Amino acid sequence: MVAAAPRADDTAPGAFGAERSPGVAAGAPGADRGGALIALEGVDGCGKSTQARLLVEALQRRGAAVGPLDAPGTVVREPGGTPLGEGVRELLLHRDHAVGAWAEALLYAAARSQLAHDVLWPALAAGRVLVLDRYVDSSLAYQGHARGVGIDAVLQVNAAATGGLLPDLSLVLELPRRVAAARRSSSPDRIEAEGEDLQKRVADGYAVLVRRFPQRMLVVPGDGDRAAVAASVADAVLPWLERRGLLGREASGEPS
Ligand SMILES: Nc1ncnc2c1ncn2[C@@H]1O[C@H](COP(=O)(O)OP(=O)(O)OP(=O)(O)O)[C@@H](O)[C@H]1O
Ligand SMILES: [Mg+2]
Predict the structure, then answer these.
(1) CATH number of 36-243
(2) Ligand nearest to the Cα of 51, by number
């Protein structure tokens, strides 16, 4: 995959969310829903959490109203972001028990449903910008593609669960697999512990998704140093938010 620039017509209504996918509620994704939802995606260890934090800081410097209503200035992580979601995270990632592919898909969707209704939709309605450390495209890549549940099946479940809330922009950090493997923690979670075959299928899944959903998905090179990757992320996000009028709404927090 190569890095792609946002489409030239990306200010048009429906940009980044306008694909017509089965089961996705009309009127929600891509419509002007007030704020914006930006997801960081990619294989385990690619740098999502690092870049999500750096993006929040960059957005705050540019005066965006970032983060949930009750936790401004924070990244929303998945699964998580609600008490139920944090419980599901513990169940899915840190317990040593069998989890079937469909069970995994449905548990992620359940956590996401709570998050969408309690946190995401209210913040979007208030015009806030949300930075997500994983969102629905993780489920499409991991459970849909890599585990074989099927991208369409997982998309339909998630559309129903979230009220059709797709990200406005989903950035996939791409880097050679050995670089991501070297970055992964020495205490792997349940999914990381499954090894490289799964990670390869996940990377393939993201490639499939980027081809299928080019209006809202974008590859960002993830193998540079943190600042270089952050600059690429900011280039992909800030001009689009600026055109949507979502920057400069709040004091930057920098000394005047
Ligand atoms: N550009 C970079 N260059 C070198 N190391 C990096 C870079 N970005 C992140 N790291 C380091 O790599 C490790 C993994 O990064 P990070 O936790 O951000 O990845 P992640 O995609 O969130 O991982 P996970 O999928 O496990 O949540 C961390 O130790 C982080 O400090
Ligand atoms: Mg992380």
Answers:
(1) 3.40.50.300
(2) 1
